[in-house]
Amino acid sequence: MHGDDILHHHCDWCKSWVFTKPAMDLGFVNVRATLLDDASWFAPWMETQTAEKLPWAETGAKVSFQRFPAIDEYQDLIARYRTERT
Q1: Taking the model in full, what pTM does it have?
Q2: Collapsing DSSP states into helix, strand and coil, what is residue 68?
Q3: Mean pLDDT (the chain, rounded)
């Protein structure tokens, strides 16, 4: 979560973590769903770091990784997301 590969963006006023963007432009940002005023419409498509989740925590995401996927997997994941979401 630290280093030059990813950029975390925070609210200047309250310092809340708003979104994360890979330093290399891969065509997506990771929006922090907990910051949405109304998250009732939101359904995660991909989850990461599930090796550390609580046993009862389930998101219903179609794609799941125990850790973060390798950077070279993201282009295929983005293409798959576009295909399945449209």
Answers
A1: 0.66
A2: coil
A3: 86
